[in-house]
From TrEMBL:
Alphabetical UniProt keywords: Cell membrane, G-protein coupled receptor, Glycoprotein, Membrane, Receptor, Transducer, Transmembrane, Transmembrane helix
Coiled coil residues, start to end: none
Record-linked Pfam families: 7tm_1
GO molecular function annotation: melanocortin receptor activity
Transmembrane segments: 17-37, 43-70, 91-119, 131-155
Top-rank taxon: Eukaryota
Membrane topology designation: Multi-pass membrane protein
Name of the protein: MSHR protein
InterPro entries: GPCR_Rhodpsn, GPCR_Rhodpsn_7TM, MC3-5R, Melcrt_ACTH_rcpt
Compartments where located: Cell membrane
Provenance organism: Alca torda (Razorbill)
Domain spans labelled G-protein coupled receptors family 1 profile: 1-153
Length: 172
């Protein structure tokens, strides 16, 4: 993890990686099944909205913590060396990438959850009813988020671009 970069390989074992991936898939499967089955129940919609807001706040807190940690490392490195501009530009690039990812997440998922909020708060209001007609567009935005996130990583990371080029060209 970024918080314990030097201990990453001892922390992230194969077993922990498998358990983490299985947990994410299980949580996704359970929550989507509940939503599909009980999508007309306001309590379920409120739980989904709460989960979205919780995840959004969690991501913000983790990103702020990462930025603070990166800044602390940057300051300690800068005090030892005379070339702080190189480290600042790379730190700034990471911060920009995380900001782009968070912004894309909010843009792609926000309208869907606004839709859910409107279903709960004003299901018969004409404005809300008009907004409901865009539901399929909101689903497309969610799918686009899954497509765009890896592209952001590829276009923001020289190492990932090089690896992608090798994979696509089969190392010719």
């Amino acid at each position: 993890t970024i918080f314990y970069a030097l201990r990453y390989h001892s922390i992230m074992t194969l077993q922990r990686a498998v358990v983490t991936m299985a947990s994410v898939w299980l949580a996704s499967t359970v929550s989507s099944t509940i939503f599909i089955t009980y999508y007309r129940n306001n309590a379920i919609l409120l739980c989904l909205i709460g989960f979205f807001l919780f995840m959004l706040v969690l991501m913000l807190v983790l990103y702020i913590h990462m930025f603070a940690l990166a800044r602390h490392h940057l300051c300690s490195i800068s005090s030892q060396q005379k070339q702080p501009t190189i480290y600042r530009s790379s730190s700034l690039k990471g911060a920009i990438t995380l900001t782009i990812l968070l912004g894309v997440f909010f843009i792609c998922w926000g309208p869907f959850f606004l839709h859910l909020i409107l279903i709960v708060t004003c299901p018969t209001n004409p404005f809300c009813t008009c907004f409901f007609s865009y539901f399929n567009l909101f689903l497309i935005l969610i799918i686009c988020n899954s497509v765009v996130d890896p592209l952001i990583y590829v276009f923001r990371s020289q190492e990932l671009r090089r690896t992608l080029r090798e994979v696509v060209l089969c190392s010719w």
